Amino acid sequence: MLITVVLAAALMIGVAMLFCLWRLIKGPDITDRILALDTLYINSIALIILLGLYHGSALYFEGALLIAMLGFVSTAALAKYLLRGDIIE
After folding, report:
1. Whole-model pTM?
2. How far apart are CA 50 and CA 31, in angstroms?
3. CB neighbours of residue 13 within 10 Å
4. Which of 21, 63, 33, 72 lies closest to 45, judged by CA?
5. Which CATH architecture group holds 2-84?
6. How far is Cα 79 from Cα 51, in angstroms, rounded to an integer?
7. Rounded to a whole number, what is the distance in angstroms from the first to the last CA of the chain?
8. Which of 40, 57, 68, 79 counts the highest number of beta carbons within 10 A?
9. How far is CA 11 from CA 44, 50, 81, in A?
10. Hey, where are the domains in the chain?
């Protein structure tokens, strides 16, 4: 039962990632593209966690944590760049 639920959730997250990719490419504004990129990495974290549940390995969870940290830093840097025009003061 767990395997079918994990596969169904992975399919739904894959569809959500396709929609985020479409918004990243088609987005009318740069803020929409940044939001789509942020949502895309959150969906990829969820997909990696589901992959870790499927295989029963804790190594995937460490990879998801690494992607979460890098995604947060990159989103904060992009927001600061849009707000002020530079990243380092």
Report:
1. 0.84
2. 29
3. 18
4. 63
5. Orthogonal Bundle (1.10)
6. 30
7. 53
8. 40
9. 12, 11, 34
10. 2-84
- Mean pLDDT (whole number) for 80-89: 79
Tokens of 6: 């994990």
**Residue 22 token pair:** 């479409």
Average pLDDT value for residue range 29-57 = 93
Sheet strands (E) in the chain: none
Structural tokens at position 74:
């990159």
> What span, in angstroms and rounded, lies between the C-alpha atoms of 87 and 49?
31
Tokens, residue 24: 């990243």
Residue among 67, 2, 71, 62 at smallest CA distance from 10:
2
